[in-house]
């Protein structure tokens, strides 16, 4: 072959990396003598002559048949190369699935775990908010009770003080009166 496999099979829009990978498999499995790959190269050369596909195939086959190549041999060798790229497709699909499993599925599991952690934390936060709210309500109630209790205690003290003052005043008046008895008598 005078042309590279990339030149023979490469078309605009092909991914260069994928093309090199597949062409490497074809190159490793290249059969001896004139086969499908050399036939494909002949078709590429004939494409420059602006022939129809049928004319290009007929012309390339006519040339190949002069060296003993049959249509069956070309088809068999084309199937050989198709099997090679099919094997590479299977390998690629397995590697692709492995990448999905290792990178995508692992990330999905990580996301699921994080979502669960977030939910658990949000529930804990909500419990703390409820606890804080309850504590604030208890504080407000206790402060209200303190004020009420302080007012009640103060009212009791005022009542006591008033009663004490009256009784103390009565006793002091009585003491004065009794003392006056001794001095008057």
Q: Could you walk me through the main structural features you see in this protein, from its secondary elements to its overall organization?
A:
The chain has 185 residues and is mainly alpha-helical. The chain has a domain at 5-97. It contains five helices and no strands. The chain has helices at residues 5-9, 16-28, 36-46, 53-65, 71-184. Helix 3 (36-46) packs across helix 4. The N and C termini lie far apart (158 Å). The model has no long low-confidence stretch (mean pLDDT 90).
Please provide the count of β strands.
0
Roughly what percent helix?
over 70%
Shape: rod-shaped
Question: What is the CA-atom radius of gyration, in angstroms?
Answer: 52 Å
Low-confidence regions: none
Whole-number mean pLDDT:
90
The percent range for strand residues is under 5%
Order of helices and strands: HHHHH
- Tally of individual helices: 5
For the terminal residues, how far apart are their CA atoms? Answer: 158 Å
Q: Sketch the major β-sheet.
A: none
- Structural class by secondary-structure content: mainly alpha
Helix-strand blueprint:
Layout: H1 5-9, H2 16-28, H3 36-46, H4 53-65, H5 71-184
Helix pairs in contact: 3-4
In short:
The protein has 185 residues and is mainly α. It contains five helices and no strands.
Question: Keywords for this structure?
Answer:
about 180 residues, mainly alpha, about 0% strand, rod-shaped
